[in-house]
Write a structure and sequence with these properties.
It contains eleven helices and no strands. It folds into two domains: about 230 residues, MetI-like fold; about 30 residues, no CATH class. Helices cover about 75% and strands about 0% of the residues. With about 280 residues, it is mainly alpha-helical.
C-alpha cells in the first residue's frame, strides 16, 4: 500500500489552520509589547548605571546581567511562574498582608520574565550606543555654553538613538518569537493554540509550518516599521568640502582638470570685474 504526499503533509489543512492561529495574535503582540516596554525601561536604567559607573549599583548591575544572560529564558519563566506566588505567600504569612495570589493574571508572570530577560541584552545595546557618541562633540557643546540637558537633548540622545535602534529592533523581534515559550505559564498564544488544535487530529507539522509563516510575516512587518523609523531619525551626513576631490586628485589627468577649473574660475572673475 502506497501513501500519498498528503498523508504526510496537507497544504489544505495548513491554510485552514492559519485563521485559527491568527485569532491568538493579539495575545502574542500584547505579551511582546508589555515585555518590550519593561525591557526598555529596565535596560535604560542599567545602561545609565553602567555608563556613569555608579559605585555599588554598577557591581549589582554586573551580577544581574551575569545571572540573566547565563540562564535560559525557559527556566526564568518557570522561576517567575512558581517563584513570584511563593514570595507573595511568604509575605502573606510573615506580615499577614492578605494578598490573594490566585487573582494575579498568568500573563503578568510571563511578560515580567520575558521583559527582565530581554533587558539584559537591551541594556548592553543602549550602553554601547551611549559610548559611541563622540566625546569631542560633547566637549565642544560644553565650550559653547550648552547645559547638560541641552547636550543630552541635542547631541547624546539623537546620536545614541540612531545607533541603538537596530539593536532595539532585534530585541522586539526576539521577544515576539520568545512569546512561544509563554505556554509554560498557561497562556494560550499562537504556539499553544497550535498544540491544542493539533491534539485533536495529531497533525502537528501543518500547524508548525503555519506558525513559521505567521512569525515570518510579523517579523517582516516589524522590520519595515523600524526601517521607516530609522530613516526618520537618521542624522544627515556632513557635506563634503568643496575642494575635497581637487585635493585628492593626482596625476596628469588631475593636473589638467584642476588647471581647467582654475582658468574657468579666473575667467568668471574677470567677467564679473568688467561690470
Amino acid at each position: 500500500m502506497f501513501l500519498s504526499f498528503s498523508d504526510y503533509f496537507s497544504f489544505e489543512l495548513m491554510w485552514k489552520r492559519i485563521p485559527k492561529l491568527v485569532e491568538k495574535i493579539p495575545i502574542t503582540l500584547e505579551l511582546a509589547g508589555l515585555a518590550f516596554l519593561i525591557s526598555l525601561i529596565l535596560g535604560l536604567l542599567i545602561a545609565v548605571v553602567r555608563f556613569k559607573q555608579i559605585k555599588g549599583l554598577n557591581q549589582l548591575a554586573k551580577v544581574f546581567l551575569s545571572i540573566i544572560r547565563g540562564t535560559p529564558m525557559l527556566i526564568q519563566l518557570y522561576v517567575a511562574y512558581y517563584g513570584i506566588p511563593a514570595i507573595l505567600k511568604f509575605f502573606n504569612s510573615l506580615f499577614d498582608a492578605g494578598i490573594n495570589t490566585n487573582i494575579v493574571p498568568k500573563i503578568v508572570y510571563a511578560f515580567l520574565a520575558l521583559g527582565i530577560y530581554q533587558s539584559a541584552f537591551t541594556s548592553e545595546t543602549i550602553r554601547a550606543a551611549l559610548l559611541s557618541v563622540d566625546k569631542g562633540e560633547i566637549e565642544a557643546a560644553h565650550a559653547m555654553g550648552m547645559t547638560y540637558p541641552q547636550i543630552l537633548r541635542r547631541i547624546i540622545i539623537p546620536e545614541a538613538l540612531e545607533n541603538a535602534l537596530p539593536g532595539i529592533a532585534n530585541s522586539l523581534i526576539g521577544l515576539v518569537k520568545g512569546t512561544s515559550l509563554a505556554s509554560t505559564c498557561g497562556i494560550i498564544e499562537i504556539t499553544y493554540q497550535n498544540s491544542l488544535l493539533a491534539g485533536r487530529d495529531y497533525r502537528y507539522l501543518e500547524g508548525y509550518v503555519a506558525l513559521a509563516i505567521i512569525y515570518w510575516i510579523i517579523t517582516i512587518i516589524l522590520e519595515q516599521i523600524f526601517k521607516i523609523i530609522e530613516r526618520k531619525i537618521r542624522i544627515p551626513d556632513q557635506p563634503k568640502p568643496i575642494d575635497e576631490d581637487e585635493n585628492n586628485d593626482k596625476g596628469f589627468k588631475a593636473f589638467f582638470k584642476n588647471l581647467f577649473k582654475k582658468n574657468k574660475k579666473e575667467s568668471s572673475i574677470n567677467v564679473d570685474t568688467q561690470y
